[in-house]
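Long-time lurker, first post. I've been practising inverse folding by hand and with some scripts of my own, and I keep getting stuck on stretches where the structure tokens seem ambiguous. Below is the full token string for one chain I'm working on. Before anyone asks, I'm not after the true native sequence, just a reasonable design that respects the backbone. If someone could post their per-position residues I'd love to compare against what I wrote down in my notebook.
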């Protein structure tokens, strides 16, 4: 099973979530799970329509019980093969009937490195300090917990 360790020099921040995990899988395998939309959807539990491409949005319906009403929209920022993948999204945008499109987004970054025993993956989500105050703390808390759970799903998927 993957080992979830604190990232070096972690600091308490209201603006960013940072998670680091060592996955017992090759960098190529982890990369494919992150950047192939069908594979991403399997472990993240979202049915995406289309493929990830830099500068392009991709949408899909969540498949997590209780969140099936949520349409996730990601805007892919950058793809550096087998090293770095980043997208923007509206964090914890789950309230039925609410239009989040005018709100700022957070940036989600995945960085991969070879390490003994597999691949070190660092996930950073930043930009929470720009989210409206009325939902900032809840979005941060839910996404912090969410990334902890998603890392477990990803580890199970690739290992």
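-- Answer (accepted) --
I ran through it position by position. Result:
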């Amino acid at each position: 099973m993957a080992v979830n360790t604190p990232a070096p020099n972690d600091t308490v921040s209201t603006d960013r979530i940072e998670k680091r995990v060592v996955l017992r899988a090759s960098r190529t395998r982890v990369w494919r799970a992150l950047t192939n939309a069908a594979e991403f959807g399997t472990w993240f539990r979202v049915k995406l329509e289309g493929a990830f491409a830099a500068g392009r949005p991709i949408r899909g319906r969540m498949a997590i019980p209780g969140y099936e009403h949520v349409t996730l929209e990601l805007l892919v920022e950058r793809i550096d093969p087998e090293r770095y993948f980043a997208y923007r999204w509206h964090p914890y945008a789950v309230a039925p009937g609410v239009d989040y499109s005018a709100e700022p987004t957070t940036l989600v970054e995945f960085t991969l490195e070879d390490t003994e025993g597999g691949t070190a993956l660092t996930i950073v989500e930043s930009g929470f300090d720009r989210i409206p105050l009325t939902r900032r703390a809840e979005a941060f808390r839910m996404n912090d917990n969410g990334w902890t759970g998603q890392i477990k799903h990803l580890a199970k998927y690739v290992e």
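A couple of notes from the structure itself: Residues 53 and 76 are 6 Å apart (CA to CA). The chain is about 25% helix and 35% strand. Happy to go over any region you disagree with.
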